[in-house]
């Protein structure tokens, strides 16, 4: 890991200035064949000038971390991304952004695709989407031609049924095996049903084609982590719906099939319904299916509105609007506790703006405020998996649909995965609601990781981080505004516990900002340096700057910061 220590003379000036940005130049030098590459870092002061911080430019904020116990936990594969079924003919708002990003036509040999997945080591991938319940599997007894989707005006979502051949399934699994992906596959849950009235489907599920497909998968020893049943058929549904009573009975049948084909060893999870949350419908599904049938309840979130809605950017930066989804997370958590404590909440699909995302927002730096806030909010309510729509495809892909080059949200997802552990801690924050804070146990090390999101367009925040063990002691310092910045250093001490008292403790900071200060930029900066592919086309390493734990955390307007405190005394994180 590359770390840099900055003396306080660089971080703070007596004339009330702070360094606005740092531009690292990484100059490689080989120390011999087979040896580690050494890196030298130089600050380029001519390219990075100090910016004056006036009293009206920043506000104080205090974050108190309560580390005695965790309030929730995620899974190791919390960060997840989807691969959808939409063909190139899928269009919204006079644009067709899917191109060749479907399960059926995605270029599985593209080296960037493999590198992007491998960087997570591992990344959970959910295969599914709107056309999932029209997918046939090209097994020997299908009895129909195995043809791709075609546009049909009378079809569900304007498309015919489509089929995946076993050869294509082999190729997909070869890619999954090579990249170490953890796979959730969505099954067709409409097969065999009849439409009883507009938007409502009845009758039992015909499991024969799915059973043969799963049997082939078991025979080939493809390591599917979980089988998901259906897509957006819950409640009133999207295009189609099925009653919770019938759905629950069909889940029992699916669980029986999986038990028969897998036995007791390495049996995949059964997850459902992959739809929008409807409390009554979800509760009834758990009641009907009964204990230990449904291992996880998947729900979908598109809380920013339509992809062509001009209010999408404003909603992303509105803290009250963002917080509304907490009601959904909280309600689902309670529904599971009361009706099916053997299950767990998952976000099975979430793209922010629906109908392929916003072409002006979803692939830009601005979207990371929504995305990271969603990860933080959902984790607080025991969500085990959060699947981003999409890995590639539409406007909301983590990867660009044409070039496979990572969009800003890809790096946000990767940093979360690398830094945020599974233990979720409670946090109290004083100050503006435009500063959002989430804290987890640090990943694969001691201490904690703090995520800070500054939604304010013009106001920066000088953040004091305190351990609730020491908060009474810290209160004696008081928070008051003073014209001398050096006094600000004293009042923004990061209180992390007795381990920091030796004065040598450091923290690791990852500051994310947009290129040229444009929130709609497609390029993200990490500590002032653009995140771009390496010379050999690889995913770049994400290095922090190392800072004295007793210096202030300044979060500039419209920026994001991950801050790792390796020496933070959090009893819950040492268990």
Automatic annotation (TrEMBL):
Question: In what way does this protein cross or attach to the membrane?
Answer: Peripheral membrane protein
Q: Would the keyword Cell membrane turn up in this protein's UniProt record?
A: no
Q: Which UniProt keywords apply?
A: Glycoprotein, Hydrolase, Lysosome, Membrane, Secreted, Signal
Which ranges does the record mark as transmembrane? none
Q: Which PANTHER family match?
A: HEPARANASE-LIKE PROTEIN 1, HEPARANASE-RELATED
Matches recorded under Gene3D superfamilies = Glycosidases
Q: Per UniProt, what is one GO molecular function of this protein?
A: hydrolase activity, acting on glycosyl bonds
The taxonomy runs: Eukaryota, Viridiplantae, Streptophyta, Embryophyta, Tracheophyta
The name this protein carries in UniProt is Heparanase-like protein 1
Q: Cellular component per GO?
A: extracellular region; lysosomal membrane
What this chain does, per the entry, is described as: Endoglycosidase which is a cell surface and extracellular matrix-degrading enzyme. Cleaves heparan sulfate proteoglycans (HSPGs) into heparan sulfate side chains and core proteoglycans.
Q: Where found?
A: Lysosome membrane; Secreted
This chain's source organism reads Zea mays (Maize)
Q: What is its main location?
A: membrane
